[in-house]
Design goal:
The structure holds two protein chains of two kinds.
Chain A: H1 2-9, H2 13-18, H3 23-37, H4 52-73, H5 76-80, H6 85-112, H7 128-169, H8 171-195, H9 198-228, H10 247-252, H11 271-290, H12 294-301, H13 321-329, H14 333-348, H15 350-372, H16 381-387, H17 391-397, H18 399-408, H19 419-423, H20 429-460, H21 465-486, H22 498-524, H23 529-551, H24 555-564
Chain B: E1 5-14, E2 17-27, E3 32-36, H1 43-50, E4 58-63, E5 66-67, H2 72-78, E6 79-82, H3 94-104, H4 109-122, H5 138-150, E7 156-160, H6 168-183, E8 187-191, H7 195-201, E9 204-209, E10 212-217, H8 219-223, H9 230-237, H10 243-255
Parallel strand pairs in B: 3-8, 3-9, 6-7, 7-8
Antiparallel strand pairs in B: 1-2, 1-4, 4-5, 9-10
Helix pairs in contact in B: 3-4
Chain lengths: 565, 263
Amino acid sequence: MNKILLYLIMLPKGLWKRLGADVTQLKAILSVKLKMDDRKPLTMGRPQNNAKKKKSNYASTLTFIVGLFVGVMYVFPLIMFESEPYMGLFSFYTMLTVLLTFGLISDFSNVLIDTRDKLIIFPKPVNDRTIFLSRALHIFIYFFRSVFPMSVIPWILWSYLHGWKGALWFPIPMLLLTFICLFLVMGCYMLLLKLSKPERFKDIISYFQIVFSIILFTTFYFMPRLSESNIFEQFNILTVEWIKYTPTYWLAACWYWIEPNAAKIQGTGWLSILAVFTPFIMLWVTVKFFAPSFIRKISAIDGVEVEAPKKNAKKVKSSKLYLTLGSVFNRTAASKAGFSLAWLQTARSRSFKLKVYPGFAYVFVYFFYIFLSGNVPFDEVLDRMADSKSHLLLLYMTSFVLLNTVTNMNITEQYKASWIYYSSPMEKPGRMMGGAFKAMWVKYYMPFVIVVSAFVLYVWGIGAVIDIILATTNVTVYVLVLMYFGNRYLPFSMPEQMKTKVGTAIVKMIAAMLFMGCMGAAHYFLYFLWLKILLALLSIAMLWTLWDSYTNTSWQQLKMAEDAA
Amino acid sequence: MQPIISITNLCKQYGEKTVLNNINLEVYPGQIIGYIGPNGAGKSTTVKVLTGVIQDYTGNVQVAGKDLRENLMDIKRMIGYVPELAELYDLLTPREYLHFTGTLYGMDANLIEERMVKMLDSFGLADNIDQRMDSFSKGMRQKVLLASGLLHNPSIVILDEPLSGLDANAVILVKELLQRLKQEGKTIFYCSHMMDVVEKVSDTIVLIDKGIILANGTFEELRAGSGQSLEQIFSKLTMADNLMGKAGDFASAMTSNNTNEQL
């Protein structure tokens, strides 16, 4: 698959050359990067294994299937606006743009601003434009691989609705859309890189990503709801004629090539020319104006601002919060070490923050989205909530935060540093894992549950205390079960892999959340207080047993879990 | 004779910290320059400037009479660089990696193959040529890096701790190789902490500390009849006094409050 894509990508050689890239070098870099993405890195103490090939094929198939399902969710505007193809396409492209931009920002940013090539490629006679284009096209290949399965179902539907002409036409604007999303995000990053101080760039990007993800996510869930109300009830494309100024409408206007008379906004057929030229203009602007200082900026990114050495650094204050909490929550030295390591690393790792922090906001966004989808007027929201049992939904949704933190805690770029675990005289690695789990629970989950509980107690009153206890222990047990059976690794010891992360991660998360939903539903039907107390006690007992087993994980069990990964 | 590398008033700062403070240095063709200094002295930063990895410096750097900023690509083509931290794409095999780096220098695939096989064979890596490098020892990786730095036959070779991790035989081979490269008229910029090697192989020794050049001359000039070894001169100039006492403090720190806490 990669070879075909690489071949296709290298077809417009003349274009890459005109943009200032060295085509031979560009191909060499891309080919090496793709080759490396296909290979699974060795983690500590695990030999190379031929069985992995089969496993990665399975992951690719899974990614494809997930993509197909995601595609199904996006066909609705095409069906809803069947008689108004321009509107259907506009809505379809807009929704897809939001999703793709979101994916680009959260999954592929690191590829663009990767500094690991610094001592390998940068000293070689490779110019800025070649390096920049190699990264842009590397991202494009993966991006295309995730967009393609998503567009299969809408493509089939469009072909069914509009015949062979529609079938032939459909991939063209899709390809243009992919390029527009890619260069939109890249252009933003390159502009930020140009304007900001390089040493601060990664921090700025992290916060930009977090805020942007939350905004996109919120918009995505609330826009359809708003569109259901008043304004759009008697919907007509002519009431929103301003959409003709948006690139997603220009893409929809490409339908003019097939059905010139179907456009309700008159005289917009020529906008399809803009759709064709926009990606090229964006590409040209990005490469010509932003790429020239690319290597200089990227090199400077890692040149962190050096702090002046602290005068009294010899005596560490023992009153640091994580040390105090580490002593309170852990008994053995190994678990204290795991606690401290997880606490400190997660506070400083940008990729961890990026993956985990937006999740805190998602819980509330999801909650209000699901609650509001019952068409409750805004001023009656709290009263209606108090009458329902929706606090259980919120309480069980907190599992997303715990699950997100503990799973991301194992992944790092510096996974090779995990040799330290294997060389230290640790009898049971489970102790270290237990300490790290506790750190995530205390640092992220507990404060979040406290905030959620305060809200729950405010709205539902003191009677909800038992629900809070039962839900919290259930969530902890459940996440621990998932870690025990599917994610039993030492903290910061697993590499992140580009190839498999898109599909399997989503499937695992969806499956996990579905099961959590079932638990919440079971809790919903508990009517007697004594039963809730009994189940809370049982849940605590289960947590106790499971915890004992988890923290007693032996080296052999750990190896088996890593081999299965 | 015109210097092949000419550095004038080179300065580099990270935030408020000055890493290179007004470096002035001239290197002549066919010379082996031993560039030494304690940790954090600015050696690697100088090397990164010379190889074009760091471009936001002040001052003037000329290589073969050309300004580094204005002729970056031409100058990069003349340089072979072996970085300090064994940085390579270790998911690749040596064959794949060297083909990749050779291509970046515009070399023909057949030429790469021919040179690569000879080089790796000399290093005793012929049997490992198609093995992924993530299972390689540090020394094996270092050998691949050396091959990658020399594959395109550069006229200036910049080596940052090139002997790191190499076994005794490979060390002898590399030292001999340095002399051969010198005979061929190549300029070698050699950064290292291994004083005995620097002392033996270098024509000129430059000692840098806290971003400032403290000494620049032949080993005989630095010694100035004192009979001291380079190691002793290094300690004296970098003011690392009472090292014996510090070693004693270190050793006693290991045994202070000794407990056998069970993990």
